Batch of 3 targets.
Target 1
Amino acid sequence: MRLLVFFDLPTVTNKDLAEYRKFRKFLLKNGFIMMQESVYSRLVLNNNSSKLLKNQLLKNIPPAGLVELLEVTEKQFASIEYYVGSAQTKVIDSTKRVVEL
């Protein structure tokens, strides 16, 4: 099974940023890997390890913001379809400098 954690935490104040960093470090320390910004996943072996991890997660959720948890089977997780957008063409790669006075 896989546990997917989705979160949207405020980052307005220094306290918010500290809570965000603390929660992210908790996820990384406990074996979660980042799939996208604010989306992390972890492989769990059975229901008991899933329950234990969920309890640890509940103890470390920041007081503000939104955290969602989804448990899926490996078969469901393997059926993820990835779509990648086209390359950005607005970036100018040049060594020339322009100075307007």
Target 2
Amino acid sequence: MAHADSFVPTAGRKPRLRFDRHELSGAFGDMGTDLPLLVGMILAARLDSAGVLSAFGLMQILTGIWYRMPMPVQPLKAMAALVIAQKLPAATLYGGGLAIGVVMLALSLSGAITWVARIVPKPVVRGIQLGLGLQLASIALKDYVRSDGTAGWVLAAAGFALTLILMRLSRFPAAAAIIALGLAYAFAFKLSGGDFARAAGFRLPQWHAITWPDIWTGFLVLSLPQLPLSLANSVLATRQVAADLFPQRPVTVRQIGITYSLMNLINPFLGGAPTCHGSGGMAGHYTFGGRTGGSVVIYGSIFLILGLFFSSGFRTIIEIFPLPVLGVLLLFESLALILLVRDTAPERADFAVAALVGLAALVLPYGYVIGLVAGTLLHAAAHRGWIAFGR
């Protein structure tokens, strides 16, 4: 079988889904980002884990089938952070998800999202990716790798070294091997076969009614803070990564915006967390071998099975994936994003704009929207000769 990198479809055509060892490895490339956010929201807002996991898996499967590329589905990060930090109720989360779905649909169908994509230059998008990559690397090292003390550092170091080795040997799926290492660690030190067996039990998601007050509150509290990040990373940066990795298979910001909105018009009624697409997720799937929608379908199937058959033992599920192992996956995902900034290096002004946008996204409140606006203005000023970034 040809290596995944040799697979190049005819321009503009969607390839068939593949389910080989490379797609299996790529399926785990985004788990380090998704699982902790889903877990945090379930615990903070007391969400029904069957609904959250099942809906998340279903959206992955549908997205993989539609795009036929590793177009990921991720929890909305700003919303997740607010829900976890403020212990917001489930009703507000569902209302916010439905509200942002309506807003994104309006932006997509009206053409406003295409206009935004046209005026935001590529160095600004690269800066957004840089800032997100640095944020993810910080989370991986500070929160995940350190979570189990010395044992966590040893596990992460072993996982990092194993990943470097296996990524050079295309016959072995690196991410799947890292997950296997985490499973071995979990069952050796935290779980037993009996724990896993007791977690089994079939449960369907429950239908949730959404009220107008929930939608309005969710819009003000959650959707407004989320929207700039969604425009910058979920739409613009994801379109750019798709163009970088799959130039033969063009995807428009309008397409991404519409599927983003449709997911959030469905998720709340199933008790699912609000979701988006993401440049980091696509980079993660690709880094570990995903080249078609097969990796996303495999990934979604895992969550769908967990939601339908193991959500009754949710805390046991959490222990199956040790945080240091997720930290290794997240670190490689972040590095893939950070390295994209290299193509701005030939132009000093472009690199400076990308670096400043990345720094703003990393350290400032509402850094993504500040970086998006300020970076676009700086780029225009630099290319008109109004300002200079050194010689």
Target 3
Amino acid sequence: MSGERPIATAPMDGSKVTVLWRDRDEQENRSIAQYRSVQRLKPTGGDWDETDEGWWAFVDSDTQIRVEPHSWKPDGPDEDD
């Protein structure tokens, strides 16, 4: 896939970006996600700590999970579709 960048270069300011990650079955996934720091999580309520910090993505209309993406794609035309 062209246009992919290392996840370490992705914006971590709470903006939403397209990330690529593998699930436990090694299936490649592409999701809109945002990096959420503890400082961003705590105002939402609940008992958040450093283990909750990371990339969060919706996997369906009701469910968010923390994912471990390996790369991300900036907004723009998808060159490989």
